[in-house]
Amino acid sequence: MPAEKITHEKIIHAVLDCAFIKSVGGTSLADIAGKLGIKKASLYNHYESREAMLDDTVHFCGEYLKKTTLIPSEMTATAQKYTAEAVLKGIVHRWIKINEKEPLLQIYSFIESEKYFSPEAAAISKESRAKILNQTIIALNSLIEAKKISPATKKTVSIHAEIFTNMLFSLLDKYIIEKKNYIRSNPQSGDGELFSALPFEPDFTRIDPLLEEFCKIL
């Protein structure tokens, strides 16, 4: 049976998988090659250096994150149909579940760690958060128009959206830390399909009370 063709995208996914487990700085070319089942020297057939590989990974992550969304496309109809609490809980539950899957889990972790060292990663992180903030503003305005929350000034909506956005990223960070701690304690869990069978999911019983309290200030 012929060996599977190695592509830039497969190398990038290997970089993301290894970096998630060992950190970007702790990931070597040997780790990446081992993940792909090839010799380290073979990576130079695709990239001239480790730095070029990481730069391409950052670019890939940025393009992937541009395609992700927080709110449903039918936000106006959703706001009309459900309570504000149900809408906001639905948004948070959906967002965390999307981000816990491959490759978004690894992409988020990679960009958030690399933003301190790579200007492009920092720009991607900033753009991603700005997009989530803007979509949160859309969601809150839709709930105001549907008379599900009290009317507010543009400034107040922006403040509430920023609180909500910060909460989203804080919850995701906490979940990823828990997942990484589990993987460190059970290294065999990283074999095969990365983390697909980990024995836990986001604990929404801890998240939902925060959302309920947030809705009280709207």
Automatic annotation (TrEMBL):
GO MF annotations, alphabetized: DNA binding
Pfam families (alphabetical): TetR_N
Q: Which PROSITE patterns match?
A: HTH_TETR_2
Domain HTH tetR-type: residue ranges: 5-65
Q: Which UniProt keywords apply?
A: DNA-binding
Per its UniProt entry, which superkingdom is the organism in?
Bacteria
User: Is DNA-binding given among the entry's keywords?
Assistant: yes
> What does the record give as the DNA-binding region?
28-47
- Name recorded for this polypeptide: Transcriptional regulator, TetR family
